[in-house]
Amino acid sequence: MKEAERRPYTLVIDEFQEFDRTNPGVYGDIQHIWDEYHNKTKLNLVVNGSVNRLMNKIFFDDSQPLYGRNTGTLMLKPFGPSLLKEIFRFYKPDYTNSDLLVLWAVSGGVARYVDMMMSAHAFTKAEMLEEIFSPLSAYIPEGRTILADEFGSDYGTYFTLLAAISSGQTTSAELKNLLGTEVGGFLAKLEDQYSIVEKKQPIFAKQTSKNAHFQIDDCFFRFWFRFVHKLNYLNELGRRDRMRDIAERDFDVFSGYALERYFAAKIVEDKGCTRIGSWWDRKGENEIDIVSEDEIAETLAFYPSCRKSRGILCQEPRQAQSPLQNRPSVNRRHVMPPPATVTVSLVLCQKGLTL
User: I want to staple 212 with a disulfide (CB 3.0 to 4.6 A). Which of 98, 99, 201, 259 is the partner?
Assistant: First the structure.
């Protein structure tokens, strides 16, 4: 603080939530120093932490010494598609789209997992899976560690919910029956605070629609529950090589959702739409993987997807008035009623959208 009295000074403290492990009274000491000196200095204090639950407790629990002392909060987001490509290109200039999809599917753009792969020079599917399932892998215990750190005594409940969603129990009723209690609060926390799960319902459907289900939206946890937790019996037998083989065998089917989420992120990044989602009917016979809306331009774009080596197919815009009474002749699979009084751009099928 004395240094900051003489000149502007920025102090950055990493993993701030760990400070009290060595000195339980450290946050109280910081409070007294801050309250006495911060108006007399030019100190810019930046603290960061990797455990959301503990950081929230430090600054937003009114029983804690530093409650109300923060002047700003920034939640760091995963790398988007363009930055992930830039990082990958730096390490592997000749990477393929398939390599990029694997990196996205196992990391979701989270810096820790991207760095894990790049530092190990794991640039292809085989190399990344080898790194993930290696004897010294930090990836294998990561899922349990994160959930235990974030949810503390409620860890078991959240773990059970995520494992159930991963295994196909995706409706509120199924999850309530499994736990024997209301699950709305748990699911809301996983969705709103942690972005681990997402409530999926057709775009433009009412919030009260029963045509909804939950799924793991975080790429890391989606991969971890599918190939680490589900195959833990092999890990206990010391057969991580077989876990790797199963992941490699099933990856193309598994990666379909990751591909969809990649393109959704890319569309938001490139085209600045105001809403994006999916659409399906109650019977599950007709589905559109990605629907984007631009409320300013009053357009809708439909992206019915097909797995191709270069990505999915998207479609050229054609204008039509809403409601679609005089819509062009298209397959039922590609048609959904847009909201009333909106001029739509029907995106119907011709050009390739590449990674």
Answer: 201
